């Protein structure tokens, strides 16, 4: 949510956007736009730039509020997997958590990617703040304080965390 604008990722229907607090919606999907896939698991927006994590099509990015989309996937980029579960962006840095391909990071808005597949391959949620990147996976919580160059993993065996299945992460 950004002001009166609401972004709703749907399983099977694409991405719906309301600019009037939910009174009316515009939906972008594979039938009426260049969105990569109708199963959208994660969305992040910054101004007119929208990032849609699609589960099967890769990562779709719109720089004009959803009117047109550019998709990055394994056939046209170094993105770790076509099943993208979550996305977060900060300036030109884009972080994508994939289902089976680990974590992919782009420092140039999606043009090129570095994939960290030595982390747990199924990354459920991602978050970034400056150089610190957080990745919630099926068995560990990963934190990098240097933009992804090195990682520390946390789980119930090496910390006071209650369980090893991490499905969301947020830091402030």
| Mass-distribution shape | globular
Low-confidence stretches: none
Going by helix content, strand content and strand pairing, the class is mainly beta
* Sheet having the most strands: 4 strands, antiparallel
Strand order across the largest sheet = 4-5-6-7
> What is the terminal separation in angstroms?
17 Å
How do the SSEs run, as a string of H and E?
EEEEEEEEEEEEEEE
Strand content: 35-45%
Number of strands: 15
Provide the residue-averaged pLDDT: 93
Please, how many helices?
A: 0
Using only C-alpha atoms, the radius of gyration works out to 16 Å
Share in helix: under 10%
Keywords:
single chain; 172 residues; mainly beta; four-stranded antiparallel beta sheet; globular
